[in-house]
Amino acid sequence: MKMIEISAPDFDLEKTLNSGQVFHWQKAGNGFAGTIDDRAIYAEQCDSVLKVRFGKTPARSPRRPLPELVAHYFALDHPLARICASFPADPIMNAARDFCRGLRIIRQPKWECLTTFICSSMKQVAHIRQISLALRKRFGEPRQIGGRVLYMFPSAQRIARASEKQLRACALGYRARHLRATAQLVSSGECDLEAWSARSDVELGKNLCTLPGVGAKIANCVMLFGYERLRAFPIDVWIERVLRQQYFPRRKKIAAQRLREFSETYFGEHGGYAQQYLFHHARTFWGAHASRVLVSASRRNNLSPGSLFAAEHKRRKSP
To answer: What is the CATH number of the domain that holds 4?
Structure first.
């Protein structure tokens, strides 16, 4: 099938796919291979144009226009310039915004998103990728594109039928029990993920937290990436580190609840985008050791860690 060209201004495919919000896309040639719904897809970017090739259409696949399918998945309709303009104008946020220019929040299928983040608990991005691939290979249907075999994400019904032992074989560990229990709730209809779309942010968060293996952080991830609640602000170890060091540098102790309250008000209606930019920027530039060095240097120079963080980011970009 020939390549389809889709206008994609203010979009960075690589940053979006490598920012820790989705985990199954694979580098392939000049682009990436992955799946959207039940379609295998190859995508590459040339300036502001997204070039896309699709695998064979399954007989039962909905006849949605292919460019529309891709544009919706990558949220090409989000007013990114306006969203970025709404961010707080502090040094660390400015540096993250500049570094992540073109990164968009993907609209993920709700079940896939929920499953992925249940599996993400206490795991690094590389490990989450391995788990996602293992689940797909073991329980998903194969698709081909360009000589490459990809696997669809397994349904809740398929996961519910699996044994805990089979799920543990996908490197889930204790998460296997939580995932299987949640899959059984979804497949039985007791938990209707689609119906939950009509609920308020507060109600949705509470509903998600009733599911096995889902706490506040995972619930916020699912709200942001699966339900497009762009105010949701997941706080993981990277974001907690950024918040403590940049926004509360002189507080030795600060409660997690205080961080949640602060992030909800300070970052505003597009806090989810701000969080993703801060997360990708921090994870790209700093490990735990570098963060400790940064704080030490900031104290010596009587500057906020964010000021040094932003300055270091600017230095690295300079030729």
So the answer is: 3.30.310.40
Domain that holds residue 297: 237-317
With a cut of 50, say whether residue 312 has pLDDT above it.
no
Structure tokens that stand for 174 in this block: 């204790």
Between CA 64 and CA 70, with CA 67 as vertex, the angle to 5 degrees is 90
Q: Is residue 83 part of a domain?
A: no
Last residue of one domain, picked from the residues 53, 77, 101: 77
Per-residue confidence (pLDDT) for residue 124, from 0 to 100 = 86
**pLDDT at 49 (0 to 100):** 98
114, 221: one domain: yes
Sign for the CA dihedral angle at 289, 295, 297, 299 comes to negative
Question: Quick check: 6 and 47 in contact, CB under 8 A?
Answer: no
User: pTM (2 decimals)?
Assistant: 0.88
Residue 62, both tokens: 């909905």
Can you give the CATH number for the domain in which 152 is found?
A: 1.10.340.30
Q: Which of 225, 252, 282 is the last residue of a domain?
A: 225
Q: Is 192 exposed, middle or buried (0-12, 13-18, 19+ CB in 10 A)?
A: exposed
| 154 plus 214 within the same structural domain | yes
Residue 90 located in a structural domain: no
For residues 153 and 35, the answer to whether their CB atoms sit within 8 Å is yes
Q: Which residues, other chains included, contact 51 with Cβ-Cβ below 8 Å and sequence gap of 6+?
A: 3, 4, 5, 6, 31, 43, 44, 45
What would the pLDDT profile of 241-253 be if each residue is shown by its tens digit?
A: 999 999 998 888 8
Number of domains the chain is built from = 3
Q: How sure is the predictor about 319, in pLDDT bands with cuts at 50, 70 and 90? A: very low
Neighbours of 246 (CB within 10 A): 24
CA distance 215 to 223: 12
Hunting for tokens 């974001």 — which residue is that?
A: 239
What single letter denotes the amino acid at residue 216? A
Residue 269 in this model has a pLDDT that exceeds 90? yes
